[in-house]
Design a protein that fits this description.
Layout lengths: L1 E6 L11 H8 L4 E6 L12 E2 L9 E2 L1 H12 L12 E11 L2 H7 L4 E5 L8 H7 L4 E6 L9 H12 L10 H4 L18 E2 L2 E2 L9 H19 L1 H4 L3
Parallel strand pairs: 1-2, 1-6, 5-6, 5-7
Antiparallel strand pairs: 3-4, 8-9
Helix pairs in contact: 2-4
The structure holds 6-chloroguanine.
6-chloroguanine binds next to strand 5 and strand 7.
Length: 235
């Protein structure tokens, strides 16, 4: 998968060199390219924002640097938008909420472009123009406000990257985790059997695989009912 990221803080993405994703980059499974939006400005101050038309608080990101940055990533010749067009994702609290199903969907893409906004947002025409030559989605991490899209994109790339075939050592570990079956994960235990007077549940030491599976399922349902009843309808 090719991933391009456009941001005024490319340093945010240095952490993607470590851990599992770092290995995926070294092995060529993920080809990631971070672009500094300010490299697409032409004034001495490398200006990327300006005051909003219509007034109001804060600053808005100017369209010109975004246009040039996206031209450089997508190519500047006009092309018809199709299923095969790159997918450009703009992280935004106004977008569709990111979840495991979306991560799985996005892990199938050949090319993802992330455009990280800051300040009060990006000039609307950047979205409108990009939609004439690529597929465009606004995606939110949840109902709270971050200062910019960078941290949201890090979370999305980690969730997407680990679903790319060849990424996680044991594919079973992907199946048995929270959200994959619409339920939260069951509690896990390892040795020692007693720790600070706390015992590992007897059923897990019984050797009865049917009983273990039933107990785990029950725990998943109970935990989901308690913490995330909204998920139970879907599962
Ligand atoms: Cl994707 N961006 C920003 N700026 N804030 C957010 C978000 C995204 N998701 C939740 N809050």
């Amino acid at each position: 998968m090719r991933i391009d990221i456009i941001s005024i803080f490319p340093e945010y993405f240095d952490v993607l060199d470590v851990s599992l994703l770092g290995k995926a980059r070294q092995s060529g499974l993920i080809d990631m390219n971070v672009h500094n939006l300010r490299d697409f400005t032409h004034d001495r101050h490398r200006t990327v924002d300006d005051t909003p038309y219509g007034g109001g608080a804060g600053m808005v990101m100017k369209p010109e640097p975004w246009g040039e940055a996206l031209d450089s990533v997508l190519g500047s010749e006009p092309t018809a938008v199709s299923e095969d067009s790159p997918l450009v994702i703009f992280p935004s609290p106004a977008g569709d909420v990111f979840n495991q199903a979306m991560a799985r969907e996005l892990s199938q893409e050949k090319s993802l472009v992330f455009g990280c906004g800051r300040y009060e947002g990006i000039d609307q025409r950047v979205f409108d123009h990009t939609a004439t030559r690529a597929r465009v989605r606004l995606v939110s991490l949840g109902d709270y406000v971050l200062n910019g899209g960078e941290v949201a994109v890090l979370a999305m790339i980690e969730a997407i990257g680990r679903l790319i075939p060849g990424m996680v050592g044991n594919p079973d570990s992907l199946v048995e985790e929270s959200h994959e079956d619409g339920l939260l994960e069951y509690p896990s235990y390892t040795k020692p059997q007693t720790w600070r007077d706390l015992e590992v549940p007897a059923v897990l030491r019984s050797g009865n695989h049917g009983a273990v599976d039933a107990w785990r399922r029950e725990q998943q349902i109970e935990r989901t009912r308690r913490v995330r009843p909204d998920l139970l309808g879907e599962a």
